[in-house]
Amino acid sequence: MAGVPPDYFSATGQLWGNPIYDYKRMEKDGFRWWKDRVRNASNIYDVLRIDHFRGMADYWAIPFPSKDATPGHWEIGPGTKLVDAIKEAAKDMQIVAEDLGALDDSVYRLKAYSQWPGMHIFEFGFDSKDPSNHDLPANYEPNSV
Fold this sequence. Notes:
GO terms for molecular function: 4-alpha-glucanotransferase activity. The chain is α+β, with helices and mostly antiparallel strands. 29% of the residues lie in helices and 14% in strands.
């Protein structure tokens, strides 16, 4: 099942309850389901936000039937292959990568590869005294929302 590991918001993580995409199978048909979804969205919207972008780099997999997210583990996501498929389908539609939460180098590298703007939460910038805080306005990247 999908979710996120324990963090500063929840000691037991988040258990979303939905199944995880079978990315290996999706890759076999060139991520057709994703491409169809993005093409359909481009007929309705000017901007598409990719929720939980970090799941494209790696994602938290929780065994069924867990009661919370603590027994989960990290799995490697589809990465650049899925980014390329989405870009192909999106054509000129603007895409925003929702890159909130606990991020690591694999997420930062994938976001740089995609060239999609990421997101910041202004209030989160002042939650800690860490001068490198991702959400501190002085640390915003030029390509961000």
